[in-house]
Amino acid sequence: MSEQRLIEVLRSLKEESASGTEAEDKLSAFRDGTYRLDFVFDSSSRTFSSQHDPERTYENGQTITGQLADENLRFSLLALPSENEWADSLKRDDSFAMTVRILGFDGLFQRPIFGQVGDSSEMPEEPEEIPDDSDERKQSLEPKTSIPTKPSLSLHSDDSP
Question: What SS3 class is residue 46?
């Protein structure tokens, strides 16, 4: 099934506020596929264990949360431990593309749980910072010229009589 169809199903799950069981049923058709999706990073934390990862593939990796790009859909993504350095380098609102598979659905937070597909040789595309209006506002408030400062004064004792 296609990425677009997956996103449509995720949208409907959000609109319906589907229970975990309902969501798992609707997502079962997508379990065997892999999907190249665009994500926007919000935060990450160490993955210790997950009921959605019985093989412990993602243990000691990172659990990344954020939104699907151009969608108002939250996600959790379990990244491989080999990608910890990359995941640690992400900043809020960085975007990245990654090939993932569906691991499950978090009924409490109403978001899909994806797992990274591939080995460490398949590094995700470099994060790309999304422009933020607040950055533009900050720049417009910064002075355009520097204000000269007085050099610091040092006091010397005069040894002459």
Answer: strand
* Domain extent listing, the chain: 3-119
pTM of the model: 0.70
As its CATH architecture, domain 3-119 has Beta Barrel (2.40)
DSSP 58: S
Angle between helices 3-16 and 20-27 (to 10 degrees): 160
Place of tokens 């659990």: 63
CA distance 99 to 125: 10
pLDDT tens-digit series, residues 84-107: 999 999 999 999 999 999 999 988
Amino acid at position 104, single letter: G
User: What is 111-156 written as a DSSP string?
Assistant: EEEEEE-S-TTSPPPPPEEPP-HHHHHHHHHS-SSPPP-PPPP---
